[in-house]
Design a protein that fits this description.
Residues 245-302, 319-376 form the CBS domain. Keywords: CBS domain, Membrane, Transmembrane, Transmembrane helix. The protein is 57% helix and 7% strand. It has 18 helices and 5 strands. A 3-stranded mixed sheet has the order 3-4-5. A two-stranded antiparallel sheet has the order 1-2. β3 (326-327), α17 and β4 (346-351) form a beta-alpha-beta unit. α5 (77-97) runs antiparallel to α9 (148-168) and α6 runs antiparallel to α7. It is elongated, with a radius of gyration of 31 Å.
Length: 382
């Protein structure tokens, strides 16, 4: 028998490495320690040390999820708080009507799992809490249904500290559902999402897997989207904004009049004009749509205009600011959502605080088209 045989057999039992940097280990450990210590101290002060210690096990397990697995679906506020409510209802109910014992513990476990699944608040420590309450020691039994108070107090303290600590240490918690807004306020999905993986594809894939996946829907979409962007950037061969941009930048100044901007845009067949001050610093940007309303206002009759006293409109009055810009080494694939989903028609390209070019939708489409044409012969040869 080959010596590699036993080694491969044992490899099956070795879990894959957690995709968590060591810095995150210590961040989560310190946060969990502080939260459990505070919750246990407050609960012990208000309800007595035996009560606090009896509830410490499920609380510590919840702290692991809220601090170390904060992005998981099981770690969000409703699964956490909802599971504790389910545990209190099942555990206290069984303890009151039947009494403590192994049978009660065995009954509490499946009942709380079913209730948590029904209410969409699956949180494993909730099952441990239900069993603890069903097997309540004398200190908890003496409280009766008032034991809900320390249970909810622990939950509120842990959730509050997890939210504050995670935010202060650069972690977004809780993970709220992101509502996609389209630029044109229509029911259409963003342009970048109309081809490729759709929400329906995700639903179908999860249904085919047939198992629970501890990741939120938004996180799953973000992971797939980031993977696709990296794959596209690799296929683009490192094309950056500097290779795509137009270098002969047409710009205006804050003192440029409305009629001058119209002539400049129409003369160069442009839709946007960067606005630079005397030092060459980008201070704003104007588009055709920005010029329409002031132009219509000037066309309306007014006594001031009749006597030749109408004030000239300058770009300083109508330009948009601040301006969304990109660095010259920004990957071209990262420009796509800005020019498509954000509805921008022009992205000024910066180097050391100076405008060195602009990338328009036309520039990006032309570059991508040329890249596809150069890749087609290679694909056919392969």
């Amino acid at each position: 028998m080959s010596s590699r045989g036993p080694s491969r057999w044992f490899d099956r039992f070795i879990p894959v490495a957690l995709n968590i940097p060591p810095k995150e280990w210590f961040r989560a450990a310190i946060g969990a320690l502080l939260a459990v210590a505070v919750a246990g101290s407050v609960t012990g002060y208000l309800f007595g040390s035996p009560v606090a210690l009896h509830l410490m096990g499920p609380l510590a397990a919840s702290a692991v999820l809220l601090f170390a697995v904060h992005s998981g679906a099981l770690s969000q506020p409703w699964p956490f708080v909802g599971s504790y409510l389910c545990a209190a209802a099942i555990g206290l109910g069984l303890h009151h009507w039947i009494g403590p014992g192994l049978l009660v513990a065995c009954m509490a476990l499946p009942l709380v799992i079913l209730l948590m699944c029904l209410l969409r608040c699956l949180h494993p420590p909730g099952a441990a809490l239900a069993v603890s309450l069903a097997l309540a020691d004398p200190s908890l039994a003496a409280m009766g249904f008032k034991v809900v108070e320390p249970v909810l107090l622990n939950a509120v303290i842990l959730l509050a500290l997890a939210t504050v600590y995670n935010r202060l240490t650069g972690v977004r918690y809780p993970k709220l559902a992101v509502v996609q807004k389209t630029t044109h306020a229509t029911s259409d999905r963003p342009a970048s999402e109309r081809v490729g993986v759709s929400p329906g594809d995700l639903d179908q894939a999860l249904e085919e897997i047939g198992e629970f996946v501890d990741v939120t829907r938004n996180d799953l979409e973000r992971i797939i989207g980031a993977t696709q962007r990296h794959a596209v950037q690799r296929s683009l061969g490192g094309i950056s904004a500097a290779r795509v941009m137009s270098r002969d930048v047409q710009f205006a100044t804050p003192q440029t009049r409305l009629d001058q901007a119209w002539k400049q845009l129409s003369g160069h067949r442009l839709k946007n004009l960067p606005v630079l001050d005397e030092a060459g610093k980008l201070v704003g940007i104007v588009s055709l749509s920005d010029l329409v309303a002031p132009a219509m206002a000037q066309a309306r009759f007014s006594w001031r205009g009749l006597f030749g006293r109408a004030r000239a409109v300058t770009l300083a009055q109508i330009m948009s600011e601040p301006v969304i810009t990109v660095d010259s080494d920004r990957p071209a694939v990262e420009l796509i959502p800005l020019l498509c989903d954000r509805g921008l028609h022009c992205l000024p390209v910066m180097e050391q605080g100076k405008v060195v070019g602009v990338v328009t939708q036309t520039d990006l489409i032309a570059a991508l088209s040329q890249h596809l044409l150069t890749q087609e012969p290679v694909a056919k040869a392969a």
